[in-house]
Amino acid sequence: MHKVLKKWMMLSIACLLITSATLSVAPTAKAASEDTILKGRIFGDPESVATPITRAGISGAIVGKEDGRDVFYTTVNAEIASFQVVDIKTNTLLYNFPLEGIQQAWSHVITPDGSVYIGGIRTSGQSKGILLKYSPETKTVVSIGEPIAGEKSIWSLTVDDQGNVYGGTFQSGKVFKYDPVTNKFTDYGTMVAGQEYVRSIAYHDGYIYAGVGTTGNVIKLGVTTATQGYKQSIAADLPALLGVTAAEVPFAYDMAVVGDLLFVKFQGGDIMTLLFYDLDAQQWLPNKVGKDSVNGTGVGVFSFAQLVTRDNKVYIPANGFLTELDLTTFEVTPLVKYGTSLRGAGWIEFDHLDGFEGESLVSMKANGDIAIFNTATKALYTMPSALIGAPNPIHNIEVGPDGNLYMSAYPAGMGAVFNPRTLQTTNLIMEQAEGMVAYGNDMYLGIYPGGHVYKIDTTQSTPTAKSVFTIGEDQDRPYIMKVMEDKIIMGTIPGYGQLGGALTIFDPDTVKYEVFRNVVKNQSIVGLAYKDGYIYGSTTVHGGLGTTATERSAKIFVWDVANKRKVTEFTLDIPGLSNPPMISGLSVGPDGNIWGGVNGILFKMDPTNYDIIDYKNIYTDINNYGLWRPYHTHWGKDGLLYMDLADRITVIDPKTMEHVRLVKDSIEVKFMTIAEDANGNENIYFADASDMGSLRMIPVADVEYEQAGKLKLSAPERAEYNETISIALETDQASELYGFKANVRYESDKWDVVSVTSSTAWSKEGILTWSAKNGVISIVGTQIKNSSLNGNTLVANIELVAKPLSAASVFTLLKDSEMIRADGDTTGRTHLLGTDRTASVIIGSPNPLDINGDGKVDSLDLMQIASQIGTALQDGNRHMDLNGDMKIDIADLALVGLEALE
């Protein structure tokens, strides 16, 4: 039984509070920060729980000589990339140089003086290409600088006889020169108008040959005094050689000069074909090396950075083999099974290695392993990587059917599985997964490039990614994957130079699938949800790389599954939203409605009539957001919505639209999900742009309130002259609330206080008294017996009558308002509100066009609203926003003018 002492003590305290401004007999108990609590859930500080994918991942390498030793020069891609030098014969790391501000390097080139130039790419923050130089004499790396402002990457490098360095860029498809003597850059401009890439480059006899994409082309550019001003395409014969139209010629992806021949590999779609241009005769040869499924895997020619020759033969990576190409007959002979590109190549003597005496050909794999080929005996020996690995950026995170987190990385090649219950990590071979979804016991992966679908059987002790099917239809990036009853639905981005994504519906049991392209013309699909036989999709206006959007606004579409047809498509009708490039994050909420995100706006849509039921512009500073990567939406067991809205971790109460933003100092949250720990509690897991190699976690727990809670006011937005309104006094996250005193300041010249009445919840086991004096309403309430209140509850209604015809008013719940817990008789503590809380009410004429409230609409109203045009909305002028577009402008003035004229 509750102590009788407590009952009478609380009544005594209540009586004292009615005449006292405050009663704080002990310090206020410490509470969690307000911005980390929502609906009884508290969100802790983020912590790194794993570095799941650590390895040496490289994009390119080159063989050179340093201090008489044969070496590999390469750059390990990472959040902070590192340039590394490896002694090939001894397989030892000689030097390691961190490259601050650089994340990747695709190309390296050696000048005649032995200097190594590195085509660095900065991808964090504002992407840009940076040229760097390594000196084998001083053993230092220096940044030369940004060759062309605005270009986002350096894809290719070459060098002339004088030591000048040339490069090809992405964003505008330009070629540049760096002169080490003058230390100056030359911008030769865009090679082909509208084409964004110079993906490959080579120098020969005064000319640069630039390999262009996304629509393939080869430009011959004069760069010496004798050849300057010359710029011509030499691509006229390419369509016939490749068997495509001119518009279908793919990327000129790789390039090298071998003797008097220019080797160019074209790659895109189902083409991976090597062609040959005779530099002396200035014509393409009829010979080519393409897909060969008889003598190889049929994949075509892989990439190369260096090519080496011997006895009039050159060695290329083709159809899953190191392949010998006869330069006289152009016959190809597969030598050694080798299913990857040649990242650098050279002839090195390995007399100490049995079976590889004399010169052997060497190259480097994507993980830094050195491959040694005896071309005579057709033998292969692999030396393990001597490179220092680094955390690889996490490229996706999703929860599997086993409750584990599945992650892929960029660059591709390795993934990881993290168990949030045991904190153990397992690595697996895995390509870059743009999207993931759990179905049955399997984890399905949408793989880029190529639009492939893989799966992992999560019941196996060793996770292995296995190919299931390829989407086709020129689709490249499966960014969104969702379960639809016994099917999986996927939304994709097309390949390079393509517009028009696709909706794919896949049956895992029969392994059959259907692809519906261009559901929304020239747009890609980045949002999917399913309910009652219909798919709700959303789009981005963007297509694959190398395209320009042709449509103005992203859309939502509805797909009838049974009849395999689009029911409708439409733009979002949300005030203030204009032509957003992307809508995503679609999900069916617990209320059965469709939820989603656009820019910084969260919205809720009725799935039957497509009306926007509710929305909240959470991040008003976000506009024109989105390319491909969708918002990730997750509904917690606690009923809250977890979302990386505008790349910011946001937790929302779907009933009230209240929200908190977590990790406020984040540059950009790339991926996020929620998963259960060993106690069954759901925490937030994410990867952030500031440290992409780390899996980070925000612990989430129920709040253990130390305070009684807080009070707040809720009021209607408007009142008319002489109207009686009710202001609600409510608890906010109360815990064992027993008594309170609320001091509410009001403007007595604008309001008459009628009464303060107790709510049903409070009066059931409690009493309430009040008084109004000098513009302050003091309300005191206490519970009796064993009663106390918890959570968010109405405790009292304040009734008032509006006195003026037109005014703006503010009610303030004063910071000295107090609350008392049920244990107050033993702790002696009361809990201060601490900060003022306000609610605003506009008192207006029954006619909203009567701005000054004098009972008529005339020139005086026009003058008053005209004086406010262009000013920010505030409590004092909000009633002048007559059309509700969140601004006072000529449109509002016009409404008053029309009424005044009548």
Automatic annotation (TrEMBL):
Q: Which PROSITE patterns match?
A: CLOS_CELLULOSOME_RPT (PS00448), EF_HAND_1 (PS00018)
Q: Which UniProt keywords apply?
A: Signal
Please state every residue range assigned to the domain named Cohesin.
Answer: 713-826
Q: Which molecular-function annotations from GO does this UniProt entry contain?
A: carbohydrate binding; hydrolase activity, hydrolyzing O-glycosyl compounds
Pfam entry (one): Dockerin_1
Q: Which CDD domains match?
A: Dockerin_II (cd14254), Type_II_cohesin (cd08547)
BP GO terms, sorted:
polysaccharide catabolic process
Annotated InterPro entries: CBM2/CBM3_carb-bd_dom_sf (IPR008965), Cohesin_dom (IPR002102), Dockerin_1_rpt (IPR002105), Dockerin_dom_sf (IPR036439), EF_Hand_1_Ca_BS (IPR018247), Quinoprot_gluc/sorb_DH_b-prop (IPR011041), Vgb (IPR051344), WD40/YVTN_repeat-like_dom_sf (IPR015943)
Give the domain of life: Bacteria
Signal peptide (UniProt feature, chain positions): 1-31
Protein name as annotated = Cohesin domain-containing protein
Q: Which organism is it from?
A: Paenibacillus anaericanus
